[in-house]
Amino acid sequence: KIVTPMAQGSRSIVDQVIANVLGDGKSPLTILKGDVGTGKTYYMSCILQEIIKSLDMNDDMILILPYFIETDQSNRDFWTILQRIMSALRNTFLVDIPIPKNRERLCEAFSNILEEASVTARKIVIVLDGMDHMINSKEGWLDFVVDLGDAVRVVVSTSMDAPVPPRADVIEVKPLSQVEAVEYVRGMRRAQSMKR
């Protein structure tokens, strides 16, 4: 496991998302929005590491589902991702709602399966990096998430021009300042020299 140092401003973004995921936030849906190259995937990776460290991964009632769209080309189809999430929820929490073959009914089934799973789950966390890179995406598929209880948290990253569901907690990711970038590079070099 390689832990890379974060710029000072980065820490506050990660801390803010973690507070939301662990139940202190105002919305179950957190969206990191930023231009290409602002480090959204890096933040999402750090956030995922912090979530895993913070939750008891031996607890059968906790499920973390990470999807990094840009790093895995087989993960780009919206319908495939949705079916994988529903399958994991059904298997983990013994939800007896079938996954329909008809794509038009998948979003409704996803909502019902997630709601049913949240009744018995201590925590369900869906981490979806690069939502704007999904193919065949259906607009509005996350709108209902904001109405679910504390057991469900969804963290997504997307570009600045992507539509945002109402009542989502939106965090804008900006490029590092020159000072932050220099500090980040110094920290990376220190981390690399310690590995040798």
The overall pLDDT average reads 81
Which term fits the overall shape?
A: globular
Rg from Cα: 17 Å
Strand content: 15-25%
Largest sheet: 5 strands, parallel
- Count of helical segments? 5
Q: What is the quaternary state of this protein?
A: single chain
Structural class: alpha/beta
Describe the structure.
With 196 residues, the protein is α/β, with parallel strands linked by helices. Helix content is 41%, strand content 16%. The chain has helices spanning 8-24, 40-54, 78-93, 106-120, 178-195, and strands spanning 29-34, 62-68, 123-129, 152-158, 169-173. It has a 5-stranded parallel β-sheet, sandwiched between helices. Helix 1 (8-24) packs across helix 2 and helix 3 runs parallel beside helix 4. The chain is globular, with a radius of gyration of 17 Å. Residues 1-5 have low confidence and may be disordered.
Question: What's the topology here?
Answer:
Layout: H1 8-24, E1 29-34, H2 40-54, E2 62-68, H3 78-93, H4 106-120, E3 123-129, E4 152-158, E5 169-173, H5 178-195
Parallel strand pairs: 1-4, 1-5, 2-3, 3-4
